[in-house]
Amino acid sequence: MILIDTNVLVALVDEHDGLRSRALADLGKLKGPFEVLDAVLVETFFLLNEQYLRQRVRFLLERLAAGHAHVHADLWSSVFDWLEKYARQEPDLCDALLIAAATHQRCAIWTYDAEFTKLWRSPEGKPLQLVGSATKARRRKPKQP
Questions:
Q1: Mean pLDDT of the chain
Q2: Domains plus CATH for the chain?
Q3: Are 83 and 93 spatial neighbours (Cβ–Cβ below 8 Å)?
Q4: Do residues 95 and 101 make contact, with C-beta atoms less than 8 angstroms apart?
Q5: Which of 99, 111, 109, 98 is nearest to 23 (CA)?
Q6: Distance CA 130, CA 139 (A)
Q7: Alpha carbon of 101 to those of 8, 43, 79, 127: distances in Å?
Q8: Which of 5, 34, 59, 139 is 20 to 30 A off residue 133, Cα-Cα?
Q9: How much is the pTM?
Q10: Is residue 96 within 8 Å of 78, Cβ to Cβ?
Q11: What percentage of the chain has pLDDT greater than the value 90?
């Protein structure tokens, strides 16, 4: 199973989003099933204030047959502990919920947020299972003298 983050949903429905081509390319490669958290939908709708974009979210989720992911009540303590652990980096609740759900369900997260690869870890301190082009190593150009 793959949990979809806000920036992926926005990129897939907004033709002006800078991550759109990357998200569409990844979508062609990834096999579901896909799921979405309520918190991700709330963030997505906040960012997409045009009605036609919100309708695209609905159509996209239907096309992907995306399920509804949720964080069980017994994980709330873990969510708040994780937020406290990373408080200096000011994570948002949506990130904490994604990590808690993915860790609990042993599934991947599809995101383009750099924090997921460079900073965030599971509540146990392990690297997160991520999918999409954000997880691929990037070749650095040699420095010019």
A1: 89
A2: 2-133 (3.40.50.1010)
A3: yes
A4: no
A5: 111
A6: 19
A7: 17, 17, 9, 14
A8: 59
A9: 0.86
A10: no
A11: 66
